[in-house]
Amino acid sequence: MIAYISYADPPSMAAFTTSSTFSPPPSGGGGGTDDFNYDAAWYGNIQYLLNISAVGAFTCLLIFVFVKLRSDHRRMPGPTAIASKLLAAWHATGREIARHCGADAAQFLLIEGGSSALLLFLAFLALAVMLPLNIHAGKAPMADQFSKTTINHIEKGSPLLWIHFIFVVIVVVLVHYGISEIQERLKITRLRDGYGNPSGPVTNSSTIFTIMVQGVPKTLGFDKTPLVDYFQHKYPGKVYRVVVPMDLCALDDLATELVKVREDISKLVSRIESRGYLNEEEEDDNDSVNGWGLFERLRFLWRKAKDIWYRVVDQLGFSDEERLRKLQELRADLEMEMASYKEGRARGAGVAFVVFKDVFTANKAVQDLRNEKRRRYGRFFSVVELQLQRNQWKVERAPLATDIYWNHLGSTKFSLRLRRVLVNTCLLLMLLFCSSPLAVISAIQSAGRIINAEAMDHAQMWLNWVQGSSWLATIIFQFLPNVLIFVSMYIVIPSVLSYLSKFERHLTVSGEQRAALLKMVCFFLVNLILL
Questions:
Q1: How does it sit in the membrane (predicted)?
Q2: pLDDT: is 257 or 85 the higher one?
Q3: Are strands 210-214 and 239-243 parallel, antiparallel or unpaired?
Q4: Is the domain of 428 the same as that of 494?
Q5: Residue 486 lies in a domain
Q6: N- to C-terminal Cα distance for the chain?
Q7: Any idea what DSSP says for residue 287?
Q8: For residues 15 and 11, what is the distance between their CA atoms, to the nearest angstrom?
């Protein structure tokens, strides 16, 4: 914010601010501050920053490698052992990494490897195409060597700017393709066992024999016989079991509302009983009003006013007794609905799980049902298929039971679409207005200057005085913007995006994680590339 104001001010004001509030920068030639060569300064130079970053990263890598090897082997292994260990880690497959280190490690390496490969490919394109274009085709006069490598070196109105536009379009297409590939490969770790590791085809899990059918009628919760007969006729002798869960989303909402109503009834009963006890005390104290002081008389008048208010509310039909009666009726209705779930008379969730006796039939059922839906144009459905709403089915391999949000089973398509529209709208607003903390600070500063420019000038003068008053304040204000950016970009924003993904009510945990990952990647790509 300080740097932005100093650049925006006139040159005379900038010189005054620099000379009056900040100490002069270190001189390269040993002279005074008037003949200081800012272009030859060692600090802020891109070569210096790259060298320092490379040395720091290499040092951290060496410390991690040697400390990790020493803790693993209790002694430092030789070069041959280190080379063999690195080669073994390089040739390890995702399933082997998941078996030894867990599925989260495999997912992390898959995301990091895919992101690194995508960024390296984009960097190669930028160095091979855009860097020579900016250096050799640019004609804008510039003294800074680093600026000559950017788009600023190309003159305004030049047709070469269209090459930059086409390059950005290519980058967007490649990034979308890369994200889609990473998301598809993450589905490998969707099937997990009880320890969180991926379930292979040889694992003893019922998930590999099960398919999930979404879009079945909710009336099958009463009687699933038509669906069972349909699959038995289509795959005779191959169906082990058909499970049609109840509308667990409505059950969860019903249980939450019932608990709330019971709590409200208990609070209301306590309030009515306490009010009756106070009325009895008032009747006992009516005879001794003459001996009271001022405070006791005020309390007595306050009780009388409350009693009159309760009587007026009672006459209007808004008394606590009337509210208690309505809450008790609501509790009775909710308990009757809860009893229908206990007796198995509730509506279904619109989802069915079909368990087959072998993996081959499960895979064949998924392919058959998907292909039949694609080839149904111009054909007729049978009466049974019309009753089962066959044209609305969405068939896929069933996720693991621990991966399913069971309380989300039964959510309507309209509510899910409405939630996703709201989330995407919120994400778009975040990308437009809150994608960069610096943009937010600049917007707040501009709004403050429009509202009260004099107060902003006083605040700027106070900040300059604080920065020049002591070395501790200078250090704090030097690193505080970086800390705020770090906290907002890597703690606040990912938490908000994760909460938005939870608000969408995905059916599975893995689907929610994929949605959160996609939102984070889109957010940071827009923040880094476009801004």
A1: Multi-pass membrane protein
A2: 257
A3: unpaired
A4: yes
A5: yes
A6: 17
A7: G
A8: 6
